[in-house]
Specification:
Length: about 375
């Protein structure tokens, strides 16, 4: 079976009423592939936990595969990459969430598994101080070279993308619509600039409009992909607060800049801090210190064969993966190493003790050589 066949069937499954990402992945895991789901009798489908008779019949009655094929074809012609959940380029942090999308559609030059990801969110009607705070925070963390993630909306989102571009930081916008268009349209020029060092990303297929119900789904991708979420200005209701709540459920680090009690743009930030859902940040140094981003980026020295002479086979395997793939979460590193858990954990502990690798926040590891 080709990748496109699986993509077409994943797209078909995601378009069926009452089948969301969680149910779709559950089906594929039980049956073996998205394509096989559609060849499975309804009586067997309905026995899978969480599916039931109505969903099973909706699957069996689906016939519009030609429309899904056309969507994939149009997407490809537009130069858009389609990343299924199983792709090695799919964001690892998003894979570890409870409800990752089946597919992502991406356009631009972007690494979706960088060492550091900072999501910046806030009000669509920021104060001048809010814009200046975005500039200040990103300038101060520039040396850490994080990917700047936001939603291309008016206000704080726009400022985050614009400042990132000015500083040469990679920046990616997560959209609540298909990539046949840019929403809001006034930011199409900004999106084109982002294509050279970042780009645009969505879970919504070609032709999907930016309907209201799509935005919370978009926000969960922003929350799931980041290491840290910075809330600059927001009221107590709105997309930024939704993103913060989702990020909290994903165990992401949330930072909020406080403001005056009578300013509506600061109410949400103050509430997040009051409720212990976000860490109060008064300066970029607060964020960088907590995230362990203060060190200068490690410059990799030229490889020297003698350096590895004293390492065990297991330690060399782990170092090789870290050098090839960069910073990784421990679960993915163990899978790529192919080592049994007890040998893997012994080896990585020895590498830490020898100062050859370093444990970062979020249970991630990076090579120090």
């Amino acid at each position: 079976m080709t990748d496109d066949e699986e993509i077409i069937h994943a797209l078909a499954l995601s378009s069926i009423p009452q089948i969301g990402p969680v149910q779709a992945r559950m089906l594929a895991e039980h049956i073996g592939s998205y394509a096989r789901v559609f060849r499975t009798p309804a009586r067997l489908l309905e026995e899978i936990p969480g599916i039931g008779r109505v969903r099973a019949l909706n699957i069996r009655n689906f016939t519009d595969f030609k429309s899904c094929e056309q969507t994939v074809s149009e997407t490809r012609r537009a130069g858009i990459n389609i990343l299924p959940f199983t792709s090695e380029n799919f964001p690892e942090k998003l894979k570890n969430c409870d409800d990752p999308p089946l597919l992502l559609f991406a356009k631009g030059r972007m690494n979706l598994n960088p060492n550091r990801v900072l999501a910046v969110v806030g009000t669509r009607k920021p104060t001048e101080q809010g814009r200046q705070l975005v500039d200040m925070y990103l300038k101060e963390i520039q040396n850490a070279q994080p990917l700047i993630l936001s939603g291309l909306a008016y206000g704080i989102d726009y400022q985050a993308h614009r400042t990132a571009l000015n500083l040469g930081l990679p920046t990616v916008a997560v959209l609540a619509n298909g990539l046949h268009t840019i929403y809001p349209g006034l930011h199409a020029g900004l999106a084109r600039e982002m294509m050279e060092n970042g780009g645009v990303l969505t879970e919504f297929p070609w032709g999907t409009k930016p309907d209201k119900q799509n935005f919370p789904r978009r926000n969960r991708i922003v929350a799931g992909m980041c290491d840290a979420l910075l809330v600059v200005e927001t009221d107590v209701k709105g997309g930024s607060m939704i993103t913060a709540e989702i990020a909290l459920s994903y165990n992401r680090d949330i930072f909020a800049i406080p403001g005056r009690l009578n300013d509506s743009q600061s109410r949400g930030c103050n509430v997040l801090i009051r409720d212990n859902k976000a860490r109060l940040t008064l300066s970029p140094e607060d964020l960088m210190e907590y995230m362990n981003w203060k060190d200068e980026p490690v410059k990799k020295a030229p490889s020297a064969p003698s350096l590895f002479a004293e390492q065990s086979d297991e330690e060399r395997i782990i170092l090789k993966q870290l050098k090839e793939h960069g910073t990784m979460q421990i679960d993915r590193l163990m899978v790529l190493s192919g080592l049994p858990p007890h040998r893997f954990h012994t080896a990585i502990l020895q590498l830490e003790l020898q100062n050859l690798c370093k444990r970062l926040s979020g249970n991630q590891f990076t090579s120090l050589i």
